[in-house]
Amino acid sequence: MDEFSFINSIKPKFYQQSSLLKGIGDDAAVFRSSMDIVTAVDTFVEDVHFSRSTMEPYHIGYRALGANISDLAAMGASPSFYLVSIVIPKNWIQEELSQIYLGMDDLASKYHMDIIGGDTVSGKQLTISITVIGYTNTNKARCRQHAKEGDIVFVTGTLGDSQAGFHILTNENNRYIDQDFYIGRHRKPEPRVAFAQALESLERVSLNDVSDGIANEASEIAEASNVSIVLSENDIPVSRSFNQFTYEQQYQWKLSGGEDFELLGTVAKYDWDVVKKAAEQTNTQLTIIGNVIEENKHPVYIEDNDVRKGLKKSGYTHLK
Ligand code: ADP
Ligand code: MG
Questions:
Q1: Tens digit of each residue's pLDDT (9 = 90 or more) over 183-216
Q2: Nearest one of 116, 81, 79, 120 to 97, comparing CA atoms
Q3: pTM (whole model) above 0.90
Q4: Does the CB atom of residue 86 touch ligand 1 within 6 A?
Q5: How far is residue 187's CA from residue 204's CA, in Å, rounded to a whole number?
Q6: 3-class SS shares of the chain: helix, strand, coil, % to 5
Q7: Which is deepest, 107, 140, 170, 180, by most CB within 10 Å?
Q8: What atom in ligand 1 is closest to the CA of residue 27?
């Protein structure tokens, strides 16, 4: 199939966003907005960010767009458009490419997002670069530098599931409890868009999505806000059957496994009820996992039975 028919095959039959003036088919797309525009790009390279031994083409598309939408969620933005730049190697057949786009399309339709452009080239390694565009009301984008001493630290969902899923997929001879659940969490992440949007009324909240693990995301918030964060090890939420893995695996995956695409945030104590209500309204699991303290030697500490240790971005601890 030539490039022209390929582009034609991914062109939507209709667009959902009313602000769109021109979608796929011209030199560039056009949309109109009076809102604050939020945009991000992420690139995924075969055998670096994903492998065909653990992902079907459908999942590659679903997860690549999911990771991007998660960045919009972490800004409190409503997803609206995406553009896909793809490098296609010769050994990928048309049906597999269609599956990548179907994976993206299935997730996008949950958010009424439209694909409005991209670029198609051939090359040695399958590479997908997705640009997402969303919007917030004026000055409502949720930045990392808004944590303050005394804030509550919270996280949505459970952590470490995606790494557990990856572990299961790469250790196929073993049997695990809730296998399909963990594999699903790895292949089809669901970004926390609705929860972040339900925080709209808050004057101040910092948010970061868990792409590299909470050890890393917490330190990004701490450094941007000039504070330190204390996490309570036993409060970090994990799935019901997570204790089937070794203590070291659990510790490593929940703190630095990453790719769970949950949201980590900090908020003032007096605003906690708003956060709780947002979680209830959007059916989101929500857990308090720590608090914000004055800037200290380490950006992040982990506490277990009143013993407080510095936590590295990688999830490793060092003695105080
Ligand atoms: P140009 O030469 O102007 O860059 P292209 O032939 O690359 O035009 O693209 C034609 C149209 O198809 C444009 O609207 C472009 O955004 C869109 N497009 C090209 N490749 C892709 C892709 N992989 N995914 C989505 N849209 C694409
Ligand atoms: Mg082009």
A1: 999 999 999 999 999 999 999 999 999 999 999 9
A2: 120
A3: yes
A4: yes
A5: 33
A6: 35, 30, 40
A7: 107
A8: 3
